[in-house]
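Project standup — Tuesday

K.O.: blocked on the structure for the chain from last sprint. Re-posting the sequence here as requested.
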Amino acid sequence: MRILAFEALRAVDDRDAYANLVLPPLLKKARENPQFDGRDAALATELVYGTLRRQGTYDAIISACIDRPLRQVDPPVLDVLALGVHQLLGTRIPTHAAVSASVELARVVLGDGRSKFVNAVLRKVAADDLDGWLERVAPPYDEDAEDHLAVVHSHPRWIVSALWDSLGGGRAGIEDLLEADNERPEVTLVARPGRATTDELIEAVGEESALPGRWSPYAVRLAEGGEPGAVDAVRDGRAGVQDEGSQLVAVALADAPLDGRDERWLDGCAGPGGKAAMLAALAAQRGASLLAAEKQPHRARLVERTLTGNPGPYQVVAADGTRPPWLPGSFDRVLMDVPCTGLGALRRRPEARWRRRPEDLEGFAPLQRGLLREALAAVRVGGVVGYATCSPHLAETRVVVDDVLKGRGGEPIEAEWIDVRPLMPGVPAVGEGPDVQLWPHLHGTDAMYLALLRRTA
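H.V.: unblocked you, prediction finished:
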């Protein structure tokens, strides 16, 4: 299982792969060995995700145990070391077992010479526990609060700063948020309206392994070990895996007050199809139709697959939302869930925090503004636009909406804010409105952002 975890980390590091895409096929292949059981799969998964989440902390600790800059250590050696450090400091594996297993892994994948280096480093690490190491390698909070939080909670400093600006408040809130990013997220199912019910999903999973969602009336949360693929409704496409925050975004757009007809809906950035499937099901219940547009053809095919079996009228097209093929004023409701840095989903993609750079914001900015402008052009007067993104960064949320409405970089657009808060009943701590920012530590969801706008002229 440690070799499997090492292979996954190498793919993430060497090919910029994502663990959630690399790990499942490796586990599937490993299960061909009858000696590989569920506990082995669980440990391999914890080793991969735990190591990725705590990479920043572990790098600081490893740096304190070697006599050269970290960049001079070969990446495969660092992966073996990080796996070993996670076993020592982040799991209940006994010290002698963590060190010996890591040294044996190093011998197999790196050779005898490097295994001796791994052994020496890990024995130094094993001399203290995680709290002791953090006292040694993290600067005091009073001297440099952001750097302290970056090391202790394993986030790049610029992300700590950005999240703190977006969240506001004091130390407790930002520490809770950063710690939530390092926790394994729950698996949440969605019962697509009119196609499945939460009671059906709970019965299929078993009441001992399933709970109703916290906020979405269509959500079911799985306890650890729950297997979505074993549920008939998921296999049939009547239900799916979807974060509760994403469900809330789709439902809020569908429930937003509208002037006039309610017949044509658009999902302008539909891939891979989760929100489109929810919108298509809700639209069908009202006799409305959905057009789901996705720029990338392969992602458009994913949307088509996700929508298969929906009872209502819908169409999936491969189209660029910044140069749309539809006429202005064609739609009554429009969702534009724009591409972003993904800083709101670091629980699910922990490697993303080490790949993103502050300059990435500049790359997304023109696209986000362009998509929102086109969304407002696509909706008729009196219609509603939802601007959503899985990032809490102010430069990707409120700033984008303000810039577009005020005409920064283009003509001003006449639209008014709709208060999102009443459209998420029962959801606490949603701020002063009119937009809503969800948070992992407050809501148990990804950090989804939603602004709703009504076109006025």
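K.O.: great, moving the ticket to review. The radius of gyration is 24 Å. The chain has a mean pLDDT of 94.
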